[in-house]
Predict the structure.
Amino acid sequence: MNTGTYFVTAMRDGIAQAMREDKTVVLFGEDADKSVMGSTKGLIEEFGKERVINMPLSEATMVGLAVGAAAAGLKPIIDLMVSSFFYITMDQIANQAAKLRYMSGGQVSLPIVYFAATGGAGSAAAQHSENPHPTLAQQAGIKVVIPSNSSDAKNLMLASIRDPNPVVFLQEAVLGGSRGPISEDVEEIRLSVGRLVRSGADLTVFAVGRTVAMAQKAAEVLEKENISIEIIDPRTIYPWDKQIVLSSVEKTGRFLAVDTSRKTCGFGGEVLATVATEAFSCLKVAPQRLCPPDTPMPFAPHLEKFLSVSEEKIILQVRKMMGRS
Amino acid sequence: MNTGTYFVTAMRDGIAQAMREDKTVVLFGEDADKSVMGSTKGLIEEFGKERVINMPLSEATMVGLAVGAAAAGLKPIIDLMVSSFFYITMDQIANQAAKLRYMSGGQVSLPIVYFAATGGAGSAAAQHSENPHPTLAQQAGIKVVIPSNSSDAKNLMLASIRDPNPVVFLQEAVLGGSRGPISEDVEEIRLSVGRLVRSGADLTVFAVGRTVAMAQKAAEVLEKENISIEIIDPRTIYPWDKQIVLSSVEKTGRFLAVDTSRKTCGFGGEVLATVATEAFSCLKVAPQRLCPPDTPMPFAPHLEKFLSVSEEKIILQVRKMMGRS
Amino acid sequence: MVGEVDKSLSLKGLRLMMRIRSFEESVQKLFTQGKLPGFVHLCIGQEAVAAGVCLALESTDQITSNHRGHGHVIAKGGDVKKMFAELLGKSDGYCGGKGGSMHIVDFASGMLGTNGIVGAGIPIATGAAFANKYLKSDKVAVAFFGDGATNQGVFFEAMNMSALWQLPIIFIVENNQYTEWSRTGDLSVGTTISRALPFGIRASSIDGNDFIAVRQTVGEAVMRARAGGGPEVVECMTYRWHGHNEGEEAFAGHYRPKEEIEAWKKRDPIEALIVHLIAEKIISPEEVEKMRSEEKSLVDRAYEFAVASKPSDESEALTDVFAEQGGVK
Amino acid sequence: MVGEVDKSLSLKGLRLMMRIRSFEESVQKLFTQGKLPGFVHLCIGQEAVAAGVCLALESTDQITSNHRGHGHVIAKGGDVKKMFAELLGKSDGYCGGKGGSMHIVDFASGMLGTNGIVGAGIPIATGAAFANKYLKSDKVAVAFFGDGATNQGVFFEAMNMSALWQLPIIFIVENNQYTEWSRTGDLSVGTTISRALPFGIRASSIDGNDFIAVRQTVGEAVMRARAGGGPEVVECMTYRWHGHNEGEEAFAGHYRPKEEIEAWKKRDPIEALIVHLIAEKIISPEEVEKMRSEEKSLVDRAYEFAVASKPSDESEALTDVFAEQGGVK
Ligand SMILES: Cc1ncc(C[n+]2csc(CCOP(=O)(O)OP(=O)(O)O)c2C)c(N)n1
Ligand SMILES: Cc1ncc(C[n+]2csc(CCOP(=O)(O)OP(=O)(O)O)c2C)c(N)n1
Ligand SMILES: [Mg+2]
Ligand SMILES: [Mg+2]
């Protein structure tokens, strides 16, 4: 789409709105005052350096700092820049942020948002192309969001900030410069509610983040072949909207999970496993998943493309499942 | 079993054998010279402090040190003590150890073993009871092993040390003091080969680590009810032995994944997803998984028990799947 | 005893230290009897640090702690009844039995958490200090951690940040000279104080078994921090009388010389304070014994309370993962 | 120019610096033309550090590097053909196109890896140094990293370990005064040198634009390290002429004063060395230009080589995750 609000601007607008509403919302990040990714652009001008804090290169402490700040009354937002950097901070994410409320028997809530660009960005290579959402979702205690368009970017950012729990908001790196309209419907400001992107009769495609648009294009091609696919965008990865998926599969009887994370213990497999268990009797053919294989992301563009999910691969997989290959 | 070799002693014996065979095998760990968990007991006496190195409390650097030492000609073994501590080291695990070979186009191999006690140990509580094997398996580039008995503990330790790749060897915390005979069959010194623990006709139980013994006991109870279950112990979690599982499901037509990791993006779901996709036509009933729910591990014994997999839960689940509930 | 601290504070300190000692001794007994789930790290011998530091704080100030945290919780104002109930995994425990020894949390008294991950409380305290400054409150945050934890990278990262922003935080290094079963001197190069210097952080190393010295040094540091003076490091030299964790004897071997243990036991922080207070005629020997038995019976009653407390309902194991969404406007 | 370095080394240094400059300029051009996949961090202005350090090393010594690593690879003996092929994602690249700019690895020349994670090369170099000592080789390991990376906890952890074990490692802090778009002085408290002191590590801060000073200082440090003298820190004060990464201009704003950039450009490490070598009559202006054009054409040919190189087969994307199992006995 060539009109509407840029994805990163929508994120920024969500942050700005939350900061206007609530003085305890504070933003931390390396160069957050200057905005490497664009999603914090201009916030320093409006909110000043007391609330937009440029951070030293110390991610583990930055992420832990948010836990303490939240416990002491703030609503910290942490700009981690690139999702590959979550690994440096995993102790504070998995052992602290994800567990403190539970361990304390519910004494504290930790309204924190951690956000970062995620996934391949075009030859960003192995250490800047991770999709850590399965790893984060595995932790229990951390919510995870991956919006697929500008409207969700803004509304889910707002929902994440207002949520009383640690939320990881992953911005698809490739979508940063995409544009789209913003829904003003306050009902859209909700986590854990999936979106029916397109209705269809034959097959349910569950598509995450950047793959939603691919699925949409695939649907148009397939429609001409008289294959009608239904597309579900979960929007929130954890806890995800199971009901919208199961209802869809009940109708279509065919299920394809399309995800950006690697296969083994990835998110696509999780949804597939749930469908296989809970909608088994509706399934007409084996449920399938489409995701990158178990490798790091290579640098060369053609190798990256070879491994990544694409419109073409969705089409081929759907045809196969429909017995049309 | 009350005779045979203790599990941690078997690990120690595997390490000792490898250290005798190869002078480049070096062991690092906090109190590794004294052995908090028992699995490095006595090594300092045989190999001295040049090869059994007591480490400062700096896990991230310890894990990264192994990458550099391996790249420079050693075969480092890292005793991380408790698997919850992997999170502190995740950058060096996920971004470095798991990726360096791939990123370099295969210029280097990294023969490293990281080992730690894993899973609930009886009120060890949230920060000492993690089961990070799905998170580790998600990384691609790290092999993961969870032996279920003393014999595998020794043989898989040897296989892990001899493997030219980074391997995480997870010792079930509750099995440290269990005993059993050690197989001298060199064929047992292999990764990625599952074990048929028990043959059965009606239902395949895929059981990980500590749950293998539970499944065995469940099998005995169920046998009296004329339910014959087949038990598969994968032994290696990644890359796991798919064929042994699919062959079993082809025969039984029913599949239950029993795992210790939390549900969402856990390992049980991964195996279930694979079975659902690749053995769909054999399945007579919906495949199921049995694993702890998505929460941290609570401290109180009865709460820990409530969440954990048990013989009883396996029995109930199998009965349900057999239509006997 | 060095320095001066007012009488009532000293008496309060003595009482707290006795309470901690009593609590730990009774925990130890239960552990030996096999009545305690999990494992515990006792702070017997280190009581003056917990008491001296926490009596320099207001109840609204925050602390984070580590695996050896019972003393910190008690000194910060924790209720031994709820603590004991927690150690037994009961519903009346601070965390309803979900936390246990290493995860006791008491937000009401500013205790943001003991911690099972060595060093992890340091960034958390730094965040609390940031919030205090941001919210223009005059609260101070304290991170308690051991000499072993000074080898964790986050210690340095947090020192840099807190110096950069001049946060109201005091890093209390409880130096008992051991990291688990190893002499920290065999694992660490350089003193704790020297590690603070690059960041321009005022640092001191004091006798951690001297309640009055701890209270006075930390009291001054807290006053400076409250007034915007920024972070400080106070290293308290002390010793744990017991093992790293209870029950280690079967595995640990004799990693500490008997003479060393004996020498430190002669420097019992509680007895030292008693001698001082009696010499100063602040308390009489009879009052000491009365206080001791009061604290002992407080702990005994706490244990009884804990035993009588109901286990949490099993369904509790599934709650408190997420706070309820109240945020949608 | 301070210190003394023999003539042939100086000439070698000049040639390497010219090669690095040429390489980076040509990368820059390609980036601007949109011919380069991904993003690149150039080291123009910092060449004397790479050259000075690596010419103090043997080819068997190891280095680890960071995101700004082209210079390090070249100086350590890397082949610009294979580098260029890697940057274009071709089969003849060092990593067959799987690594790219931030992950060039050349084990044959002791280059254990550039790195996309700031600070992550530090533990890896420490491990290599450990192996060197353990294997009783006299190899030395060098970790190259920036001033920004000195705020990562692993820097301190690695200093402690290498001091504890007296490892043969040199930490080269390439201080270009910026962490991405921020002045590191706004993010860091205390000097780099002061951060080494707690660990008893010898540390110096030198003019990183003075090839001879770098070569001499590091040369001495390496000699000491080879002889068992333990770790050292050498901070090289320098400046990058270009943006943090190419193409940042559209987003970054003017975070560095023009005058600052201009002032540093006047301190071009290559020109400084040329002036010195001409003054010392070690080289003539004509020879300088000849060398420059030789290096330029070397780089040009490397580019042509890279363009002509075939892309890796797609199936290569699936290989090299694991090394083949050869271990079963
Ligand atoms: C990150 C981490 N590493 C290792 C451990 C295991 N462990 C628990 S306490 C401890 C020693 C801590 O020493 P110190 O900080 O001096 O505290 P002390 O026990 O002496 O009070 C270790 C290694 C842990 N819990 N967390
Ligand atoms: C762990 C991590 N955090 C953040 C980044 C993003 N980043 C890349 S380079 C850089 C600045 C590094 O500064 P410095 O170490 O001084 O090196 P320089 O770029 O100045 O050469 C940052 C923040 C990263 N790649 N890795
Ligand atoms: Mg200690
Ligand atoms: Mg820099």
Observations:
- The radius of gyration of chain C is 19 Å.
- Chain C has a mean pLDDT of 96.
